[in-house]
C-alpha cells in the first residue's frame, strides 16, 4: 500500500511540475512577443517602456 501511495505522490508531483513549467513557458513566450513588439512599434526617439 505504501509503495502505491508513494508512486501516486511522485506522479502527482511530476504532473504538477510539468503543468507549472508549461505555464511558465507560455508566460515567457508572451513576454518575448511584447518585448519584440516594443522594439518594432517604438517611436523614433526614446524607448516605449521605463526600465
Entry summary:
With 51 residues, this protein is an all-alpha fold. The protein contains one helix and no strands. The protein has one helix at residues 2-41.
Describe the structure.
Keywords: Membrane, Transmembrane, Transmembrane helix. This is Hydrophobic protein. It comes from Streptomyces litmocidini. With about 50 residues, the protein is mostly helical. The protein has a domain at about 1-25. Helices cover about 80% and strands about 0% of the residues. The protein is built from one helix and no strands. The chain has one helix at about 1-40. It starts with a helix and ends in a 10-residue tail after the last helix.
Summarize the SSE layout with pairings.
Layout lengths: L1 H40 L10
Quickly list its features:
mainly alpha; 51 residues; 0% strand; 78% helix; 1 helix
> What can be said about the biggest beta sheet?
none
Q: Which regions have little confidence, pLDDT < 50, spanning 5+ residues?
A: none
- The portion of residues assigned to helices is over 70%
Overall 3D shape: rod-shaped
End-to-end span in angstroms?
55 Å
Total number of beta strands: 0
Q: What is the succession of H and E elements? A: H
Radius of gyration (Å): 21 Å
Number of helices: 1
Name the beta content range.
under 5%
Question: Would you tell me the structural class of the helices and strands?
Answer: mainly alpha
Mean pLDDT: 79
Amino acid at each position: 500500500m505504501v509503495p502505491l501511495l508513494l508512486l501516486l505522490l511522485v506522479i502527482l508531483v511530476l504532473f504538477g511540475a510539468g503543468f507549472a513549467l508549461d505555464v511558465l513557458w507560455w508566460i515567457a513566450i508572451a513576454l518575448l512577443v511584447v518585448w519584440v513588439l516594443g522594439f518594432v512599434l517604438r517611436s523614433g526617439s526614446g524607448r516605449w517602456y521605463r526600465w
